[in-house]
TrEMBL record:
Its main location: cytoplasm. GO terms for cellular component: cytosol. The lineage of its organism: Bacteria, Bacillati, Bacillota, Clostridia, Peptostreptococcales. The keyword Ligase does not apply. GO terms for biological process: ribosomal small subunit assembly; translation. Keywords: Cytoplasm, Ribosome biogenesis. HAMAP family: RimP (MF_01077). This is Ribosome maturation factor RimP. The gene is rimP. The keyword Cytoplasm applies. It comes from Sinanaerobacter chloroacetimidivorans.
Length: 159
């Protein structure tokens, strides 16, 4: 089965279970690393759901459910490892809705090519508007970065 179809199947199989348990699907990856295949599922707490972040118990609960479903359906020919985890503190912003959800947070935007001598720009996320990532720097100056110039946007981890 094609990688994209596996990702779609996993999302479909998890949809109701995640909703019923106060989770949402963040991302699915089906990748080969060296000689091994990995099915990686990232879950998050649904917006408005009670509780804090994702715990190891949450990951185990989803893993047990998905493992049983995948064993039953058996859609993947090769052997693989199933991993369920949270997106982490430094999560990448993948969807347009992520930019709205995390507006007001400090983010790091990694660029394909440097801009004003910088390859990584850090600032307070205002949002994503018409394909433009809008940040405020430490002096509240507006920085606008076209999406196509950004290799990755992720939440900054500040201690």
């Amino acid at each position: 089965m094609a990688k994209s179809k596996i990702k779609d199947l996993v999302a479909q199989e998890l949809e109701t279970f995640l909703q019923e348990n106060g989770y949402e699907l963040y991302n699915v990856e089906f990748v080969k690393e060296a000689k091994d295949w990995f099915l990686r599922v990232y879950i998050d707490r649904a917006q408005g759901a009670p509780g804090g972040g994702i715990s190891t118990d949450d990951c185990e609960k989803v893993s047990r459910f998905l493992s049983a479903r995948m064993d039953e359906l058996d859609p993947i020919e090769q052997n693989y490892y199933l991993e369920v985890s949270s997106p982490g503190m430094d999560r990448a912003l993948l969807k347009e809705s992520d930019y709205a959800r995390f507006a007001g947070n400090i983010v790091d935007v990694t660029l394909y090519q440097g801009m004003n001598g910088k390859k990584v720009i850090t600032g307070k996320l205002e949002g994503l508007f018409d394909g433009i990532i809008v940040l405020l720097d430490e002096k509240n100056n507006k920085i606008e970065i076209p999406m196509e110039k950004a290799a990755k946007t992720k939440l900054a981890v500040i201690f």
